[in-house]
Amino acid sequence: MPLLTSYLKLCLFKSDPTDLMPSRSFSYNTVIFYFISGIIVEGLIADFADGSLEVSLRAVMAFSAVATFLFFHKNILLFQRVFTAIFVCENFIMVLAILCEVLDFWLITLHYEYHELVGISLAVFLVSWYLAIVAYILRRFFAYNVGKSLTLAFSYFILTYGIPMLFMDI
């Protein structure tokens, strides 16, 4: 539980990812939770089969992106630590996204006129927060400046969300 608390502090920029040493079981549980939360969110947007496929594609792209990035930095030994830090924070954002979906459903049942504006605003906030977290993790591990870490975080986002989304539209 202390390790999870430290990772959740990372989502709030109050922990240093370089100090965190996840066990294999913690990393495996993080990936399992990633699949479960991702399938729930995607299942609320699309159907279960499409959601499951898209989450699987995102996971493959995430692992590939982290592995490729670390390969070019000649530091593949950081793989578990980097992907666990990103995935735990992404899982946290996914839980918030699920709550946003519930809020949107509730606002629709109340016939709230601006429910779409609320939903879009929350989505922009969560994506921005996610990009900031990934940039923070990369900055802490590799001592990048803010601009380079944000560029890499945005690239990671496009690889892990954009490409699977485009594939699903085909």
Q: Any descriptors?
A:
single chain, 170 residues, mainly alpha, 6 helices, 82% helix, 0% strand
Which helices and strands occur, and which strands form pairs?
Elements: H1 2-11, H2 24-45, H3 48-72, H4 79-109, H5 115-142, H6 146-169
Helix pairs in contact: 1-4, 2-3, 2-4, 3-6, 4-5, 5-6
In short:
By secondary structure, the protein is mostly helical. The protein is built from 6 helices and no strands.
The pLDDT mean sits at 91
Q: Roughly how many Å apart are the termini?
A: 42 Å
Beta-strand percentage?
under 5%
**Number of helices, where a helix is a run of at least 4 consecutive DSSP H or I residues:** 6
Give the biggest beta sheet: none
- Kindly provide the radius of gyration, computed on alpha-carbon positions and rounded to a whole number of angstroms: 16 Å
Helix/sheet category: mainly alpha
For the secondary structure, the number of strands is: 0
Show unreliable segments: none
Shape: globular
Count of domain modules: 1
Order of helices and strands: HHHHHH
- Residue share in helix: over 70%
